Amino acid sequence: MNQPKLCTVCGGRTTRHPSEICARCRRRAESPVKLCVCCEQRRTRDESGYCYMCRNKAVTQNYGIQRIDAAIERQKTVLSILEKKKEGLSLREISRELVIPKSSVSNIYRAAVFNAARATSFADVAEEEKTNQP
Ligand SMILES: [Zn+2]
Ligand SMILES: [Zn+2]
Fold this sequence. Notes:
The protein is mainly alpha-helical. The protein has two domains: 1-30, no CATH class; 31-132, no CATH class. 61% of the residues lie in helices and 6% in strands. The protein contains four helices and four strands. The strands form two sheets. The chain has a two-stranded antiparallel sheet with strand order 1-2. The chain has a two-stranded antiparallel sheet with strand order 3-4. A hairpin with a 7-residue loop joins β1 (5-6) and β2 (14-15). α3 packs across α4. The structure holds zinc ion (2 copies).
């Protein structure tokens, strides 16, 4: 009969496989350890070629870019609301055009105009303080 044999690679686990290599050592052979393609310092068995640390870093970077993209989209919305308001459209018309609820358009518009006004007044104060200095 087919007796389990000691694995010829690790010598620790037994196997019935004709190759006389245990399942774990066969898996190891299929995905050899490579140097990480990113840091070239840590070793990895991952298909991506990235070590554990660099994979995490890549995920974090993508996440950061996604957040920036979302922020850009938000700013674009703010910009088009302001531009359309300047063109003379009502908040209701802007809401219909951008397919955003009127309450959101109103909130975004107020926040943008209020923040801009506050930022300008801060800048004015800073300018005044500078010119008042001897
Ligand atoms: Zn083995
Ligand atoms: Zn790495």
